[in-house]
Specification:
The chain is α/β, with parallel strands linked by helices and 371 residues long. It contains 16 helices and 12 strands. The strands form 2 sheets. Strands 1, 4, 5, 6, 7, 8, 9, 10, 11 and 12 form a 10-stranded mixed beta sheet that branches. Strands 2-3 form a two-stranded antiparallel ribbon.
């Protein structure tokens, strides 16, 4: 058996760090960057054969569960869906209407060779303990799309099973859409525990089944995935983005500008820029905006998100790496459950940018629901 955690190298992979010194143009100060070449796989390098005769139980049928289960089924894999309600919930009927064989979580885990857990992080440990643990027989595989439960030891699997992860880098709806278009969403893949000696074959086949090897998959570790995923969500993609947008909006409104105009400039047009960055990179984005926007962004952006902001980012990262955020999140969730976000969400919902934004979105998409 081979266990791959934060400190141990992946089998047959020599990981060498290259030290690169660069000058950051907007500050003039040198920055030392460590780069570790990432191993990647493409579609023609991966086969479904290692799991073609195995049963994959997808536990949960939310946004990711529905997309991944349906993609794997359409790829020719034997998929069953495990849900917590015995045929009484809307999700159960939805999965059946999508053509899946649906059963309780415990029975699905019993029948499966690979148990792919796709329920929310905070529900995984209890569900595993009550309905999955006793079904983890020798040689099975326990699979995830996020590393938190394993890395923080909310779930401690037996030593005689494989533990793997395939983490699509996109929301479930897009995972399904791109698959149906003949392409796919890239994923990160990792092996935490390789009891059978075939864990990498299994996880790569799962990635192929959901369509991720079409654009390509990258090797990571459970530690790297959870720490970078949480960091991105907190300082950039969710927390950082919403805080930046709201503060920019407030600055314009407090200076006397119309809220509707501030909404367009600070929120609505953000998607246009993000789309350019995603497709062409940051340099490519700047090459596709006006010269005034280019010069203003390059010279004023670093004044807003400056060294102090980066220092605070490092503090957030330390909270994640140390386990402080994980402990806080578990404690809050145990106390408040789904209401853990209520106070914060209410504050945002009542903010002027949301009130104005709702009316603006109705104007732009008059026939859309939930704008």
């Amino acid at each position: 058996m081979r266990c791959y955690d934060a400190s141990s190298p992946v089998k047959n992979e020599k990981k060498e760090e290259r030290k690169i010194q660069r000058t950051i143009n907007n500050t003039g100060h040198p920055s030392t960057v460590y780069r570790m070449p990432a191993k990647k796989w493409l579609d023609n390098q991966v086969s479904l054969d290692p799991i073609k005769k195995q049963t994959v139980a997808v536990i949960g049928y939310g946004i990711q569960g529905r997309a991944q289960a349906s993609n794997m089924k359409d790829s020719g894999l034997k998929v069953i869906v495990g849900l917590r309600k015995d045929g009484t919930g809307k999700t159960w009927k939805l999965a059946e209407d999508d053509g899946h064989t649906v059963m309780g979580v415990s029975e699905a885990a019993k029948q499966a060779d690979i148990i792919h857990i796709l329920i929310p992080d905070m529900e995984q440990a209890e569900t595993y303990r009550k309905q999955i643990a006793e079904q983890m027989k020798e040689g099975k595989a326990l699979s995830f799309s996020h590393a938190a439960a394993i890395h923080w030891k909310w779930i401690v699997p037996p030593k005689n099973v494989d533990v793997v992860m395939v983490a699509p880098k996109g929301p479930g709806q897009r995972v399904r859409e791109l698959f149906l278009e003949g392409f796919g969403t890239p994923s990160l893949v990792a092996v935490y525990q390789d009891f059978t000696g075939k864990a990498w074959d299994r996880v790569l086949a799962l990635a192929k089944g959901i369509g991720s090897t079409r654009p390509g998959v990258l090797q990571t570790t459970f530690k790297e995935e959870v720490e970078t995923d949480w960091f991105g969500e907190q300082v950039d993609l969710c927390g950082g983005a919403h805080s930046l947008v709201m503060n920019a909006f407030e600055t314009l409104v407090e200076a006397g500008y119309q809220p509707e105009v501030a909404y367009f400039e600070c929120l609505h047009e953000l998607k246009l820029i993000v789309d350019l960055i995603q497709k062409y990179g940051i340099t490519g984005m700047y090459n596709r905006v006006s010269e005034t926007a280019r010069y203003g962004g390059l010279t004023r952006g670093p004044r807003v998100v400056d060294k102090e902001a980066k220092r605070k980012m490092k503090e957030v990262l330390k909270d994640i790496q140390s386990g402080q955020f994980a402990d806080e999140w578990v404690s809050v969730y145990k106390k408040d459950g789904k209401n853990s976000f209520a106070r914060f969400m209410k504050e945002i919902e009542n903010h002027q940018i949301e009130v104005v934004g709702k009316e603006m979105r109705k104007m732009m998409w008059p026939n859309a629901e939930h704008v």
